[in-house]
Amino acid sequence: MNTDPPILDVRGVRAFLESRRVPVTGPLTSELVSGGRSNLTYVVTDGTHRWVLRRPPLSGLTPSAHDVVREWRVTQALQYSAVPVPPAVALCEDPAVIGAPFAVTAFIAGQVVRTRAQLDGYTTPELMSCVTELVRILADLHTVDVDEVGLHGMGRPVGFLERQVRLWWRQWHEVRSRDLADATNLHSRLVTALPPSSAQIGVVHGDYRIDNTLLDRADIGKVLAVVDWELATVGDVLTDIALMCVYRQPQLDPILGLDAAWASDRLPDGDAIAEAYARRRGVDLAHWPFYLGLANFKLAVIAQGISYRARQGAAADPTSAVAEQAVPALLAAGLRALGPV
Fold first, then answer.
1. Residue 74: inside a domain, yes or no?
2. Which of 332, 300, 273, 259 is nearest to 131 (CA)?
3. What percent of the chain has pLDDT over 90?
């Protein structure tokens, strides 16, 4: 199976941009800047202007996991909110133009901090400032009025948590390489611990951590834009902060296939992040053990799914097969979060 990122049809892109009255002053060239397990990201330029184009990958497509239309809708909705996002330029839903739907935003000259080595040049106070800002922005996202920004109907808030538990249990059965008692036990305990309702409904990013933001190159404590909105929805916002905290575990390394910046021991731990978030929003993290258990279960299934796709030959990176090494520890962490039986 050929999973090499496709060469971008810049003539098709140019024709589309011009049809949307976007000024294009010369021939377009493109450079692939991210071709991993997410949507493909290209920087496109006419020599005067620069844009970012996102399109789905060639393999591993699901109805929602690589949804550039969803990304576009959320990015456009948040243009004038307190949440920094790239300026929206144009959306093409017709796959005939370049072979897939795509979304175009303005280029932002920030940095993506993915690895622990990238943190080495910063002091501890600078890193604390960065995390504080990340928490502030997530809290601000969760207070956005869904109706006011035009995202009403994007998700199904009623029954959100119950569907999440059901979804990830179903996904586990689709990708598991072996039966694990901890997976069965964690699912059963999540069903038992399910909160009666989702009290805090808002915009959920779905994949929020340091490497899904663009940071100022001169000031790591300044977030220029939040990106990668392909998993966004309207639902229980505490699932967002819980996953942000669970991502802080060492198991993120094999899942991402690198020494993940967000797993660095130089950053505050998950408990400190959760406390900072609760203070920022002035809320209680009710049923927090459930949310942590669910986030660990979700991440375990994601890790297993990455390895599953690698074994099927659909992974962009052959080292993806090692992601499932994180699964037992994540399941155990989920059970610990729920406390004694």
1. yes
2. 273
3. 82
- The predicted-structure confidence for 124-140, as pLDDT tens digits, reads as follows 999 999 999 999 999 99
Alpha-carbon gap, residue 212 to 218, rounded angstroms: 18
Strand partners, 215: 111, 223
Best CA proximity match to 267, nearest among 290, 287, 247: 247
Which positions ≥6 away from 255 have C-beta within 8 Å?
299, 302, 303, 306, 323, 326
Q: What is the DSSP letter of 111?
A: B
Identify the domain boundary among 106, 131, 153: 106
Those residues whose C-beta lies under 8 Å from the C-beta of residue 291, and which sit 6 or more positions away, are 238, 239, 241, 242, 285
Here the CATH number for the domain that contains residue 34 is: 3.30.200.20
CA 123 to chain centre: 26
pLDDT tens string 110-128: 999 999 999 999 999 999 9
How are beta strands 29-34 and 40-45 bridged, if at all? antiparallel
Length of the chain: 341
What is the count of structural domains for the chain? 2
**H or E segment at 137?**
helix 124-142
Entry pTM: 0.92
Burial 273-293 (b: 16+ CB within 10 A, else e): bbebbbebbebebebbbbbbb
Q: Classify each residue of 194-220 as buried b or exposed e, where b means 16 or more C-beta atoms within 10 Å of its C-beta.
A: eeeebebbbbbbbbbbbbbbbbeeeeb
Tokens of residue 329, six digits? 């520890």
Cβ–Cβ under 8 Å, residues 244 and 226: no
